Amino acid sequence: MSWLKLFLRSADEMMLRTQMTREIISVYGFSVSTLYRKLLK
User: pLDDT digit of tens for each residue in the chain (41 aa)?
Assistant: First the structure.
């Protein structure tokens, strides 16, 4: 039973990490695109 809890906990952490990474990537991409537009103008 304990290994199942451990597995679920690690899966939760992985999900959180991937969500955070996705948010960081989206924010980074947004800032880069805005900078690119400013440079083009």
Answer: 698 899 999 999 999 999 999 999 999 999 999 999 999 98
* Assessment of whether the complete model's pTM goes beyond 0.90: no
Give CA–CA dist 37/24, Å, rounded: 20
The Cβ-side half-sphere exposure at 32, using a 13 Å CA radius, reads 6
Return the HEC string of 6-37.
Answer: HHHHHHHHHHHHHHHHHHHHHHHHHHHHHHHH
